[in-house]
Amino acid sequence: SSSSSAMSFDELKREVTETLADAGLIQKIKAELRVGVFKTLSESGELDDIEYGDVNNFKGTNEGSMTLLLVRELLQRLKLDFTLEVFASEASLDTISSSAQSSLQMLTTPFHKYGTLAAIVQQLKSNGGTLDSPSHNSSVSTTTNTPTAHPFNVSPQALRKATWGFNKADVNNTNKIKRSDAVVVFSELYPTLSMSSIHSGLKECAQREAFQSTQTIDYEEFVIVFLHLSQQQQQQ
């Protein structure tokens, strides 16, 4: 009887553990516990500075701070909230200077759904291992899926707005959305534009930029249309 009860309890415990794991709660608890322990040790002065000496030295340079911010942006884009919470705490991202953030915004990289770090890697791959910007015209190559850099002056706020819109439609993270879904998103982003203006704007950009598909658009193409419609709205 006691053996049977013990087995039932073990089975119940295993089932509860699996349920919590499937819901992501165990990972969250572990992350919060690690963050809590780190903050407590840090505030009490019991944290060995030597252990995080490399992080502090790295963060002490502008390039190091920018790199840490790039990692944070990537984790945010991928929605790795638990990992981000631990990373932000251990790297003390709240102490990074505003100059590093300003320098990061001045980087010229191709558009990329997953942020600047992914764009830099993409640019390295496209340019044969160098970050030197190749000369581009305004057209998108029809022989490669690698987005090209476009000579648009895009503010970080506008790019965040465009990224939000694309992510809303790209629920499966395929980096492609249906044109019909794009029209719906654009109508939400630009409520003062008529549906005919949005359709004609999308068609005009697709023809001028030689979009790769007549049924879907990728992130870069979405941003191109987004900027085009933004100019249309400003002219109203």
Primary descriptors:
two-stranded antiparallel ribbon; single chain; 236 residues; 3% strand; mainly alpha
For the biggest β-sheet, the strand order reads 1-2
Radius of gyration, in Å, reads 23 Å
- Whole-number average pLDDT? 74
Structural class: mainly alpha
What is the ordering of alpha helices and beta strands? HHHHHHHHEHHEH
Described by the principal axes of the CA atoms, the overall outline is globular
**How many extended strands?**
2
Distance between the termini: 80 Å
The major beta sheet can be summarized as: 2 strands, antiparallel
Strand content: under 5%
User: With helices defined by DSSP (H or I, 4 residues minimum), what is the helix count?
Assistant: 11
Low-confidence stretches: 133-152
Summarize the structure.
This protein has helices at 2-22, 25-44, 53-59, 62-77, 81-90, 98-105, 116-126, 156-169, 179-189, 195-209, 219-234; strands at residues 176-178, 216-218. The chain has 236 residues and is an all-alpha fold.
Task: Kindly describe this structure.
This protein is 63% helix and 3% strand. With 236 residues, it is mainly α. The N and C termini lie far apart (80 Å). It has 11 helices and 2 strands, in the order ααααααααβααβα. Residues 133-152 have low confidence and may be disordered. A two-stranded antiparallel sheet has the order 1-2.
List the helices and strands and how they pair.
Layout: H1 2-22, H2 25-44, H3 53-59, H4 62-77, H5 81-90, H6 98-105, H7 116-126, H8 156-169, E1 176-178, H9 179-189, H10 195-209, E2 216-218, H11 219-234
Antiparallel strand pairs: 1-2
Helix pairs in contact: 2-5, 4-6, 8-9, 8-11, 9-10, 10-11
